[in-house]
Amino acid sequence: MTQTQVAQYLQMSQTGYSKYETGENDIPTQVLIQLSKLYCTSIDYMLGISDVRSIK
What is the pLDDT of residue 52? Predict the structure, then answer.
């Protein structure tokens, strides 16, 4: 997905989402939850805490 598509899913600007990807801004918990649902993965995987990608 493009940044624009993900930003639309999150109902935010592409620039705002880009700042999460570059680390300029921290990602709020609610956004992490939405991204984990979008990508069907755990927040632990997204944060590098776990090597297990899928949610059971």
Answer: 84
Sole residue written with tokens 């956004």: 31
The answer to whether 27 and 37 have CB atoms below 8 angstroms apart is no
Per-residue tokens: 17: 């989402």
The model's pLDDT over 1-56, given as tens digits with 9 standing for 90+, comes to 999 999 999 999 999 999 999 999 999 999 999 999 999 999 999 999 998 887 76
Strand, helix or coil for residue 17: helix
CA 16 to chain centre: 12
Q: In this structure, is the dihedral angle defined by the CA atoms of residues 40, 44, 46 and 48, taken in order, positive or negative?
A: negative
| Residues β-bridged to residue 41 | 54
Query: Which tokens sit at 19?
Result: 């700042």
